[in-house]
Every structure is written in structure tokens, then in C-alpha cells.
Design goal:
The protein is of the alpha/beta class and 198 residues long. The protein has five helices and five strands; from the N terminus they run ααββαβαββα.
Length: 198
């Protein structure tokens, strides 16, 4: 009886091995500096069949960092890795992480955000600003047209408008053919509102 090769293993076992070698925790999960687990993309060079199977795991299961201007154009797995320019590989990516600054003019439009992120498996938006409660949620409004995302997380500097963040997360997870009522601003969402101690 000839010895078993890697390709003789059932597909479920091969997929589990690919996951162990190629998937790293999302960048949004806190960890010590430099403690990212290693990734082993060398397995893609074993043969064409392994390459095709593993490529789907590497690009389809990891969370990639969206480009601040080009969004899903030129994503990267981590800041230390090169950007990805292949449209074939970018088309496999379905999970994104983006940093949005509230106190800076964005370099993308609402239409570009909608085209880039609608129907993704996952979208994580980390919100930043230079001063605590120094800006409102105007920049986040660019994401109001995004629809059909399976999992959305918006976090960071959002303490001034939690109701809007909750509404936006729900909007982004609704399907494209569903009408959504516009956000109704609440008094507690207005920047500069004095704290009443409650």
C-alpha cells in the first residue's frame, strides 16, 4: 500500500491545516506588540491544487486592513506586510478593518464606501479623533449606504453618539432591498451638550 500524501487527506482535514497555517487573529483584537502569530504562506507553493485551496483560506478568512483612500483597493493583512494589488486576490477578500478619523476630511465618498463594503462578510471600523468628543459622526455618515454586511463592529472614539453607532451597525447589516428610516438625532448626541451627571 503506497503511503498517503497530503492530497490524499480528506478536504476537511486539509482545510483545518490551512486554517492553522494561514489565519491570524483580526487586527482589532488587542494583544502585546509584536505578538502576532506567524503565518505560513509557503504552503501555497506546494502544488497548483494546494495553492488553489489554500488561497481561498488565506484571503477569504483573514481580516484585511482597508486602504484609507482606496478602501478595498490595495488592502494589506498587517501594517508590516505589502499591499495586495491583484484584483483576483482582492476579489476573494470578504473581511475588512478600516480606521476612520472624525476630525479629518475623508478621502473617499459615500458611493465609494457603498461599492467597496456592501455584501462583505465582516467590516470593523475603528473610529479615532484627536480630542475627546471633539467631532461629531459626520464622517461615519459616508457608510450609511453600505448594506448586506454580515457582521459589523464600530468602536473607538464613539462615546458622544452611541445611539448613532448602534443605528449605523444595524443599517449596514440590512439587505440592500430594505428601506431604512433615517437616524433621528437625540439631544444626547449633540457635541458640546453639558453633562447632567446622569
Amino acid at each position: 500500500m503506497p503511503p498517503l500524501t497530503f492530497l490524499d487527506l480528506p478536504g476537511e482535514i486539509r482545510n483545518h491545516i490551512y486554517q492553522l497555517l494561514l489565519i491570524i487573529p483580526p487586527i482589532s483584537i488587542p494583544r502585546r506588540l509584536g505578538s502576532d502569530p506567524h503565518i505560513y504562506p509557503q504552503i501555497l507553493s506546494v502544488c497548483r491544487k494546494v495553492h488553489d485551496e489554500a488561497e481561498q483560506i488565506l484571503y477569504g478568512s483573514n481580516v484585511f486592513i482597508a486602504h484609507p483612500n482606496l478602501l478595498t483597493g490595495l488592502p494589506r493583512l498587517r501594517w508590516k506586510y505589502d499591499t495586495i494589488s491583484s484584483s483576483k486576490l482582492i476579489s476573494i477578500i470578504k473581511k475588512y478593518y478600516i480606521i476612520v478619523r472624525l476630525d479629518c476630511d475623508p478621502n473617499f465618498s459615500a458611493k465609494k464606501a457603498e461599492e467597496a463594503f456592501s455584501e462583505m462578510d465582516e467590516l470593523t471600523i475603528r473610529v479615532e479623533q484627536s480630542a475627546f468628543r471633539g467631532s461629531d459622526y459626520k464622517v461615519l455618515r459616508l457608510f450609511e449606504g453600505v448594506r448586506g454586511v454580515k457582521k459589523v463592529r464600530i468602536y473607538g472614539s464613539v462615546t458622544g453618539f452611541p445611539a448613532y453607532v448602534e443605528w449605523l451597525q444595524g443599517v449596514m447589516m440590512t439587505s440592500e432591498n430594505v428601506d431604512v428610516a433615517p437616524f433621528q438625532s437625540e439631544k444626547s448626541n449633540i457635541i458640546g451638550e453639558p453633562w447632567d451627571g446622569g
